[in-house]
Fold these 2 entries.
Entry 1:
Amino acid sequence: EVQLVESGGGLVQPGGSLRLSCAASGFTFSSYEMNWVRQAPGKGLEWVSYISSSGSTIYYADSVKGRFTISRDNAKNSLYLQMNSLRAEDTAVYYCARIAVAGLDWGQGTLVTVSS
Amino acid sequence: DIQMTQSPSSLSASVGDRVTITCRASQSISSYLNWYQQKPGKAPKLLIYAASSLQSGVPSRFSGSGSGTDFTLTISSLQPEDFATYYCQQSYSHPSYTFGQGTKLEIK
């Protein structure tokens, strides 16, 4: 069974940093491309970042480019999102999502709140 | 960027009703369209992939159709557990996937 478990969310002040982690199990992590997707409170889903299976190809949404860094450690079956210069508008539940042949497989999400 | 527009944004219906939700892409996306169901406090759940393929384990009352720019999700006979928010998502412009704004399905 595919399992994706996010961690690292919490309350952070504007301008601060946070690192999210996603622990993967139940599949060969190194064979799959991964995404981060977020959802602000009461809002829709927003794609944030993509990383290829090897980590060699990376993309970001314009809203986070230059502030967020996606990475992965295939030996540890883990995906990461380093978030710097956080803003109030980054407040959201952050999901890691596996890109499967049939759509996305999702973790349960971790809440990031940016507030003073 | 490809924009995805869902209609309606919200919908009230009764158990047993037939419901249709529409998703329109700003350019042709062939059949690269997925549908998800999301309940409060939960992650989205895949219902339909490639516009019309039913994900394993999803009840057959859910169906999808369309190609190009216009797509529909149909629930043939609403059940109490179907009241949720539904999102379409294009996977044509990999990996910059975009989602529709969501359709909230409420009990009448």
Entry 2:
Amino acid sequence: GQNIDQPTEMTATEGAIVQINCTYQTSGFNGLFWYQQHAGEAPTFLSYNVLDGLEEKGRFSSFLSRSKGYSYLLLKELQMKDSASYLCAVRDRAGGYQKVTFGTGTKLQVIP
Amino acid sequence: KAGVTQTPRYLIKTRGQQVTLSCSPISGHRSVSWYQQTPGQGLQFLFEYFSETQRNKGNFPGRFSGRQFSNSRSEMNVSTLELGDSALYLCASSLGTGMQETQYFGPGTRLLVL
């Protein structure tokens, strides 16, 4: 089976940097996604990591360490509109099928 | 490019009925994945279709099924609806090539089972 852990809630200040961690346990890792979801809206794709290292996309960066079962999403220069839930999801191979499992999400509140 | 579209956007059904939801992926995308989202369980993976074949499958009962057509449009069917099937059903499309994967979600179909 799979187990994905991420903090339930975080609060950060506008203009600051925040790191949202995600740890996972899986038998056949095949990639990790980060999504942003505003309340009442569909998730929006942020990043997909399949190899170790840091991937940077503007204000957002995502890091992966497969040996440690660990990823983080780094948000720089926080803006009020970044207040949302951030979902970590892992794709793995189990029983002949690839499965995508989502964490329960981290609700980020950005305050002035 | 048009985004992922889902129809209908809202649906009310009663227990025991069946329902079919539709998803049209972004043009050129061959992979369509379906998810169920509920407040209690979060986002759960149902299945993925690629080139008309079910490539990935989550842990849902056989009442949940799907298919994909040659134009990559996909449908999801739920038979013998239960109250617990009330949820937001999301589909996501991607190229399906694996590396540098980018998934785009549609707006979802909100299903209410009474």
